[in-house]
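Why do we care about 3D structure at all? Because function follows from shape, and shape follows, mostly, from sequence. That is the central idea of this module. The next example makes it concrete: a single protein chain, its amino acid sequence, and then its structure expressed as tokens.
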Amino acid sequence: MGTRAVGNHPNLLPKHDRRSVEEQKIDNWLPITASRNGKWWYSAFHNVTAMVGAGVLTLPYAMSELGWGPGIAVMAMSWILTLYTLWQMVEMHEMVPGKRFDRYHELGQYAFGETHGLWIVVPQQLLVEVSLDIVYMITGGKSLKMFHDLICKDSNKCKDMKLSYFIMIFASAQFVLSQLPNFDSIATISLAAALMSICYSTIAWGAAVGKGKEENVDYSLRATTTPGMVFGFLGGLGQLAFSFSSHNVVLEIQASIPSTAEKPSKQAMWKGVVVAYTIVALCYFPVAFVGYWAFGNSVDDDILITLNRPKWLIATANMMVVVHVIGSYQVYAMPVFDMMEMVLVRKMRFSPSWKLRLVSRSLFVAFTMFIGITFPFFGGMIGFFGGFAFAPTSYYLPCIIWLMVYKPRVFSISWCANWFCIVVGVLLTVLAPIGGLRQIIMEAKKYQFYS
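And the structure:
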């Protein structure tokens, strides 16, 4: 009896091949691996959108807790160290021939083992991405409220509205946008967000220059007691660490870029990263230094609150912040959606469908909205999460993986550079959350829930 050729229909394939076809279908549905059509400039504005967000507005406040000398040193060192660790992650994306580490936890599993890698990376990455989306909920709501208050300041027709309502308004946009399937589908939103971040950062330091240095400006540390200075300094470190956080989505962004032997994805990705980090420097340093120069230790934890004139310009800047954090929320939510959907489809055996996405993603948006409404402590949350969650994934986890995989010679330049990043990152992780947690407690004393 003759043999018959097996076609490509999944039901006609052997069992092991059939499973691989099913897995491929799932990969084509999951948001991170669904599309490989990204360009190098996608990398640029995705990284700008991911990094220049809520953190840039609090940099003058962080400077007021650190002072001129330590503030400048920490800012410059953070920019250099995180650019170095970001380069490492771009390089490690395809370090194994024929394989791409499309997700941070996949790289962790390669270095630490299947089980340990998941437990080491996933909790940290989720903590960063979820906490950022909560902070963006707060930022979007506060910026909407400030826009409303500025426009209605001289009018008796507007009623005072609670911050909670503005956070709900911001969340309503996220309920809709969260249904976009993958990174390529949010490219236009991310581009608009990146442009807005450049614009409102320029407005922030430009308006400060226009306003000039305040009379009797005070550059001493914000706190007047020794414990207050110490805790404030630690909180400032956390706020700076918070500002360099795009490492948590860099592999997922690179996964959307096509790759061949002649043109590996790291070439396009690194080009985009260099452009992004140049823009980051042009946004961060002027806002931090000019804002602190103009207001000293009287600056608020959001410099746009301190800058209330000219009214129309600051109102415009606040709406730019809203547009930006709408995009930033989606950039950080996409890997979370990918993890949720991977568990639901691969572990819990749900069928991939738009209904599954509608329910799971809407529940995530609702969760971040609820936490943001309940605990809207902007400055303290940035300081706490900046040290506790952001420092490991941005400052030293890439270095640990690099040392384990490449094993550079002891006391070589690579070995020393990685251990320096590890020591700095561990100190940030241990010390920075203390200041941020104290600030949250101080703010909570005078806060009324859902006010």
